[in-house]
Write a structure and sequence with these properties.
Blueprint lengths: L1 H9 L3 H12 L9 E10 L8 H22 L5 E3 L2 H10 L3 H12 L3 E3 L14 H19 L17 H8 L4 E4 L4 H9 L4 E4 L11 E5 L48 H16 L6 E9 L5 H17 L1 H4 L1 E5 L2 H10 L3 E2 L1 E2 L23 H27 L7 H17 L12 H25 L5 H4 L16 E2 L6 E7 L6 E9 L5 E4 L7 E5 L7 E9 L4 E7 L15 E2 L3 E7 L10 E5 L3 E6 L4 E7 L4 E13 L22 E2 L3 E7 L4 E9 L9 E8 L11 E7 L6 E9 L7 E5 L3 E5 L8 H4 L2 E3 L2 E5 L3 E7 L3 E4 L5 E9 L5 H6 L12 E8 H16 L3 E5 L26 E7 L9 H10 L12 E7 L13 E4 H4 L5 E8 L11 E2 L3 E2 L8 E2 L9 E4 L4 E9 L4
Parallel strand pairs: 1-7, 1-8, 2-3, 4-6, 5-10, 9-44, 11-13, 15-18
Antiparallel strand pairs: 5-6, 12-17, 12-38, 13-16, 14-17, 15-16, 19-25, 20-21, 21-22, 22-23, 23-24, 23-29, 25-26, 26-27, 27-28, 28-37, 29-36, 30-31, 30-33, 32-35, 33-34, 34-37, 35-36, 39-40, 40-47, 41-46, 42-47, 43-45
Helix pairs in contact: 1-2, 2-12, 3-4, 3-5, 6-14, 9-10, 13-14, 13-15, 14-15
Bound molecules: zinc ion.
The site of zinc ion has 5 residues, from loops.
């Protein structure tokens, strides 16, 4: 009570704030002192879930910021935290008046409006890729820093469904002081509450260890919503502004379900309820401070009503604090954590384990969403990969041609649209597939539109006519074209030119697949030399052909190729340049019923790495022999279905979120047909699975591509598999089951966000064991025994499990309907009738061999070469154009380093924080022109410490030398992950742990780069701003 009023007087002054906390904290943890409660007003605003972003803005989100700004400015004690940046930015750009903007700046300065996380969204943690998580955080942080000079330092991951070990690492790298999570397994949370272990220091990366540790707070069982039960009333709790109304806010400002107002009569029961809750929660924490989130989903849109009830209630509690044993104060998240930090306790350490999967209660395993809306998951990853390609190309163009003909503001606008769309879908009800169908459509539409804009940019960068871009590789219909991103070539001209771009900073040899209309072709490179190619009828569409071309591309380089359709098969020519015409051999449909003996008639398919045996008694894969380690492993692959219950009265149901298998999986087919197309570039094995013997159409298919040896460099270990599934029968969840002889004891490994592999040992539970042994797979999963490892790499997220020894099953698709009132009300039943075509790369080999290659393979799958059809070049192919790859040395990083980002963000702020703040405070020119000369570069070491004797070593490189293909590096500064901190000035709070008792600020290193030399250690991600001089030709 006493110190609260002191706090309020001084809080506006940042320097003196610390002194106040020193004073406050002298009382922490002292027996008999009142519990200090930090009431944090907030509104959880899903960036898409049941309603689209536009609907949400209209119904409540804009009102949150308008009314909160008004209300905070009226009473100086009031506080609010702003979380999802997409809504805030939409409000700032399209709704806020000049007066509101001025008020916001003042509230930020006073520390009363605090930006938390600062990303565009509160990203999902299970099915998102590291590259996209960083993007969405960077997108929000860039805006906040440029506009307000603000750098968020606290996380608030209150709603993602489980917690990944990658997130704490990224937040540490972004300069955060604390992390906050909430949704973790229910029985785990119970145990942590009872033993007061909800707070700990998390070392999310086993390689980076304490270097990127972060203090983590787990919310207690009440999570982020104010308790909604009031023992003295039928009203819904502490929400006086009621429930948001869609589509329009009520004209009279009176919302349904508003709580009883706080009056003389009600204030005591309200206070009693609140105090009891505070005391209950205080018992679960080690310090005397309680974090009391005040709000919930879609709250504070009518915040005058909300605050005018909160004010007197809190005043009443403080007036009676002796009796209640509790004080309450409005607070931001930083104020709460500063108090906890000042308590100076020693905290437990948590290593690199994550909190996945997540169950809320028995038979409520949130493991279904790993596979919900496969199409959306695929489009999101395609868009992300296309964005990376466009960013790296535009950066190269800007450095080479600062005065080039492509308008830079137009180009940046295209890139920003796609950055925004890719960021948005990372929301925890976005890429998860847990949204309503109309919101899923909204994400796809935003992604598609922005990708088409970027296609126009790519066309312009290659000095091509604009209209060609539309018919190119990214027409919206081509999203689900299958494994190889088969790129359609338009028209029936007898000659077609294509450009192929490699967005990776490694030299690569790869096979591209171009869908063409004619059955004969020859392919030539830009030197006029014939290129190995193969043509055959398409696996995906009738009447078209797959043209496979082997491309060799330098790091960040592109090449032009000519496809000549006029060439006929060359029986007479001495040197044949014609694409090899591959013809298929059919194997008759075999019924499971007739299956007597198997394994008698095996058909081998060989390349330099493997001998694959296909069983002619079943038309299934029988075994794979890895030729390098001379080990044969029995491997069979087929499809199985879980049949979900859709009637809540009959037992647990499956829905968007939840997987609750109604028994074991059943075989999904009665007969299998096979076609083998032996080739010189790839040999294709097409397996068609029929639900019934006599069915005309197959239900599922696998197309396996075995690379044949063509020159050196084409990886022979990569077995590409493209699947086709759907439309599914209702209440079906389909898995691809790979059954092997590996003795893995039902233990599997799957990745957290493509950043690190997690060991997933099979666990028995009292209930729901099957569903609780499902895990997310973003890029990779594998099973292994002492000798061998079977690895699957993925182009999008799925769910994975090992339900039996030697088995690895991947849930690829789900279609569900149920009669749960809540699901029906929100249209969240997942009646997804689409056909999906995901791709996996399968690798079998020794543990050592696969340890060396899986990280890079996963990145190569994500960032496959970009194929663009182009018009006839204006000059002969052999004549080099400016900007063509051979005009400059390629950009090639050492094999352990991945070029995570190379972009021109466009932010315009001084590298010096003081100078930038001075500029903002001067009030002048607050909408700066984009800075087109600042290049953002991120490098990531892709290996774990000790993973490989050579590749796990720290890598030292001279950036001036490595990047000379881009231009002359003139200036280099190291920044925090999202660019907002100069790392040499970044001081994160240090927390005492048993193994590290010395308490001081954690100093990030920096100041490297005077001679442009940097060292990157295992799993490090380092971010730089670069400036280049122009390249001379
Ligand atoms: Zn949410």
């Amino acid at each position: 009570m006493v110190y609260r009023s002191i706090c309020n007087v001084l809080r506006a002054d940042k320097m003196r704030l610390l002194a106040v906390f020193a004073f406050v904290c002298c009382c922490c943890g002292v027996r008999g002192q009142p519990i200090q409660t930090f009431v944090i007003p907030h509104s959880h605003m899903d960036v898409g879930w049941v309603y689209t972003i536009q609907e949400s803005m209209h119904a409540y989100a804009a009102n949150v910021y308008t009314s909160v700004t008004e209300e905070l400015s009226k009473v100086k004690e009031r506080r609010f935290i702003a979380v999802e940046q997409e809504f805030f930015r939409l409000w700032w750009d399209t709704v806020a008046s000049d007066r509101h903007k001025k008020l916001v700046r003042q509230l930020i300065k006073e520390g009363r409006l605090e930006f938390i996380i600062g990303g565009q969204v509160m990203h999902d943690e299970a099915v998102t890729d590291l590259e996209d998580e960083i993007l969405q955080l960077t997108e929000g942080h860039g805006f906040l820093y440029e506009t307000f000079g603000v750098r968020p330092q606290f996380s608030w991951h209150v709603d993602p469904f489980g917690a990944s070990a990658t997130t704490p690492v990224l937040f540490a790298l972004a300069g955060f002081n604390t992390h906050l999570i909430s949704r973790i397994d229910y029985d785990l949370k119970d145990g942590m509450q009872n033993s007061k272990k909800l707070q700990f220091v998390w070392r999310g990366s086993p390689s980076l260890k304490a270097q990127q540790e972060i203090f983590t707070h787990t919310m207690d069982q009440f999570s982020y919503c104010t308790p909604s039960q009031l023992p003295f009333s039928n009203s819904s709790g502490f929400y006086w502004n009621g429930v948001a109304l869609f589509p329009d806010p009520p004209r009279d400002g009176v919302y349904p379900n508003m709580s009883l107002p706080v009056t003389k009569e009600t204030v005591h029961p309200y206070a009693k309820t609140m105090v009891e809750n505070i005391k209950q929660r205080a018992a679960w924490f080690r310090t005397n401070h309680v974090l009391w989130p005040w709000g919930c989903d879609k709250q504070f849109y009518n915040s005058s009503v909300q605050f005018s009830n909160m004010d007197p209630l809190m005043k009443y509690i403080n007036q009676n604090s002796k009796e209640f044993g509790v004080t309450v104060q409005y607070a931001t998240l930083s104020e709460y954590f500063q108090s906890v930090h000042r308590s100076n306790l020693t905290w437990d350490v948590r290593g690199g384990e994550d909190f996945l999967p997540y169950s809320t209660e028995p038979y409520q395993a949130w493991t279904g969403f790993y596979a919900s809306r496969n199409v959306l998951k695929g489009v999101a990853r395609r868009a992300s990969s296309r964005l990376h390609a466009a960013e790296t190309l535009f950066t190269q163009y800007r450095i080479s041609f600062p005065d080039g003909p492509v308008p830079k503001d137009w180009a940046l606008e295209k890139l920003r649209s796609l950055r925004w769309a890719v960021s948005e879908v990372q929301h925890h009800d976005g890429i998860t597939g847990t949204e309503s169908p109309q919101v899923a459509d909204m994400y796809v539409q935003h992604l598609t539109q922005a990708m088409m804009g970027v296609e126009e940019l790519l066309a312009a960068l290659f000095l091509l006519p604009h209209n060609l871009a539309i018919s190119g590789s990214l027409s919206s219909s081509s999203f689900e074209k299958g494994s190889d991103q088969a790129d359609q070539v338009p028209g029936s001209a007898l000659e077609q030119h294509i450009i192929v771009y490699n967005p990776l900073a490694w030299n690569i040899t790869a096979v591209i697949n171009v869908t063409v209309a004619l059955p004969n072709a020859a392919v030539y490179d830009d030197d006029g030399q014939p290129v190995p190619a193969q043509i055959q009828t398409s696996a995906q569409s009738n009447g078209s052909y797959d043209l496979f071309v082997v491309v060799e591309l330098a790091g960040l380089g592109h090449r032009k190729y000519l496809i000549d359709f006029s060439e006929k098969p060359c029986s007479t020519k001495p040197k044949c340049s014609h694409a090899y015409e591959a013809k298929g051999v059919w194997f008759e449909r075999l019924s499971m019923k007739d299956r007597a003996k198997t394994g008698r008639r095996l058909l081998p398919v060989l390349n330099d790495c493997y001998k694959l045996m296909f069983d002619q008694d079943t038309n299934l894969l029988h075994s794979v022999t890895s030729l390098t380690d001379k080990r044969r492993v029995k491997v069979t692959q087929d499809f199985w279905e879980y049949h979900a219950n859709g009637d809540v009265k009959a037992g647990p149901i499956s829905d968007n979120y939840i997987f609750s298998a109604n028994g074991s999986a059943e075989r999904a087919y009665e007969a299998v047909e096979m076609e083998i197309i032996p080739g010189k570039i790839v040999t294709e094995i097409r397996q068609y699975f029929y639900r019934e013997d006599a069915d005309k159409d197959h239900a599922y298919s696998i197309t396996t591509r075995v690379p044949e040896r063509v020159g050196s460099g084409l990886p022979c270990h990569r077995l590409e598999q493209a699947y086709s599934l759907g439309p599914l029968h209702l209440n079906t969840e389909v898995v691809l089951r790979t059954s092997t002889a590996l003795r893995n004891n039902r233990t599997l490994y799957s990745d957290d966000n493509g950043y690190q592999m997690m060991k997933r040992a099979y666990k028995e539970f009292a209930n729901n064991t099957l569903a609780r042994n499902y895990f997310p797979m973003v890029r990779a999963a594998h099973i292994e025994d002492d000798l061998s490892r079977l690895l699957l790499l993925s182009d999008r997220a799925h769910g994975v499990s090992s339900q039996a020894n030697g088995q690895l099953e991947v849930m690829l698709h789900r279609r569900l309907w149920n009669n749960l009132t809540w699901n029906l009300g929100y249209n969240l039943t997942l009646n997804d009738s689409s056909v999906v075509r995901p791709t996996l790369w399968m690798v079998l080999g020794s543990r050592n061999a696969t340890s060396r290659l899986y990280q890079r393979e996963a990145i190569e799958l994500q960032h496959r070469p970009v194929v663009m059809p182009i018009d006839q070049p204006r000059r002969p192919l052999t004549e080099k154009e400016p900007g063509s790859s051979s005009a400059a040395p390629p950009v090639v990083l050492p094999p352990s380093l991945h070029l995570l980002s190379l972009s021109i963000p466009g932010w315009n702020y001084s590298s010096s924080h003081e100078v930038h703040l001075g500029h903002i405070n001067s009030g002048q020119d607050l909408q700066p022109e984009p800075d087109y000369d600042r290049v953002l570069l991120r490098l990531m070491h892709i290996y774990e410490e000790g993973e490989d004797p050579e590749l796990s070593k720290p890598v030292t490189l001279n950036l001036k030398e490595v990047l000379q293909g881009l231009g002359e590096v003139r200036a280099l500064e190291e920044r925090s992950l999202t660019g907002t901190w100069d790392v040499s000035s970044l001081q994160r709070w240090e927390w005492k742990t048993a193994d590290k008792l010395q308490k001081n600020f954690q100093q990030c290193r920096g100041s490297e780069g005077k001679d442009f030399t940097v060292t990157v250690s295992p799993k490090e991600i380092r971010t730089f701003f670069l400036r280049f001089g122009s390249r001379n030709f």
